Amino acid sequence: MSIRSSRLMSSTALLLAITILSKAIAFVRELILLENVGVGSQLDAFLVIFGLVTIVTGALGICIVTSLTSMAQLHKGREALTRLMREGFAVGGLVGIAALGVALAYAWIVGENDATVWRLALILPWIAPFAVVAEYQVAIFLSRGRRTPVIAGNIIVSLPLIFVLLICDLSIFEYSFGLVAGFILRALIFTFLIIKNETWEVLSPIKTHLFSQRLWPTLAGGSSMLAVGIIYVTAQMFARQLGDGQATIVGYGLKVPLFMLTTVWFVLGTGYFAGLMTHGTNDATRRIARFSAVNLALFLIALVGVISLNYFTFDVGNAVLANSEITFVLAQSLPYLPIIVFVPIIEMVQRLAATTHNHRFVVYVACSILSSGLLCQIIAIQTQIIIWIKISPAIAAGAGFLTALVVLAKIREPMVGKEQAN
Questions:
Q1: Nearest to residue 67, comparing CAs of 131, 140, 127, 134?
Q2: What is the DSSP code (8-state) at residue 387?
Q3: In the predicted model, what is the mean pLDDT of the chain?
Q4: CA 88 to chain centre
Q5: Model pTM greater than 0.85?
Q6: Which residue has better confidence, 202 or 119?
Q7: Residue 422's pLDDT is what?
Q8: Of all residues in the chain, what percent carry a pLDDT higher than 90?
Q9: Which of 256, 261, 340 minimizes the C-alpha distance to 297?
Q10: How many whole angstroms separate alpha carbon 327 and alpha carbon 322?
Q11: pLDDT at 8
Q12: How far apart are the first and last CA of the chain?
């Protein structure tokens, strides 16, 4: 093995370890919240409103990180970065107002008399401004080749909350305030880390022009993953309408596959995306197939783990496991495990289509995800059968997967013909 390959493997292993640690800490935080608050209407409302805020910030976040990473390379010096960060706070403020409007609209539309929903709708949207600022900061870090601070962001948000949750019984409102404080703390720490490594020299008078003609192609290019996120949130919204605690069951059942996607696949996906930038789209189909085989292995590992845990919990009758929050989460995750295979394929084809400027193909995938997922959820509401809600994310991801395969063939066919002509 060459020295370069050895260093690459060591770097990848370190990145994977930091990613898993960061996401595991966030996962533990959510489990402790479940233990403190319990399955019920309060946690249902929290998950839905937090999901709505995430959708609002995620839509713009796709654009910011994708477009701004290359632009941020042109911003050298503290003065240029300060100017860039001011734009981030201004945009974040506007997004915060939009998130507040969406949260309050949801509280009004569902006709809630419970003050819990309204109070959460007033608290949680203040995460949005600092989440958007963090997207600017992530783009700056990535433009400098610094991925470790990006991955460690969850640790900054989660560790203080875990400590407080362990020593105090926080209400859902106190936890929400703490979560907002965590996002603020992360933004402040990231700002310090960015500024301290730059000089005060004026090396770049260039403005970002983020909201130029690049905005809509970038949003279109990220529409598939945005559609997946919408289905996740609407699944919890519709589940909440079917009974207390149902949104919590759906939301926490999704956390296991999402944990695997945001840890192992994050590292693998980084390699795939970097390959598109350095090696182009040649041989992209083979690389997608190789990464898909790895994700299939992850799915099988998760499936065996969940089935085994359920066996030892319920068939063998292990009282300790039966009373554990992690057992509850894993037991609810079985219908959602197929997304471990489907979502990475969707994301890889999405990036390939965006790289080759075939944004309309990504929109086709997004439409298939939304239409199939929402159809399942409408059936659930009409029939009052919760299982349709539980399978809707997997059905939506499966539809997106099949459409992505068609799109992949459409993208590759012209290139194959061109290569043969050459």
A1: 140
A2: H
A3: 77
A4: 20
A5: no
A6: 119
A7: 35
A8: 12
A9: 340
A10: 7
A11: 44
A12: 35
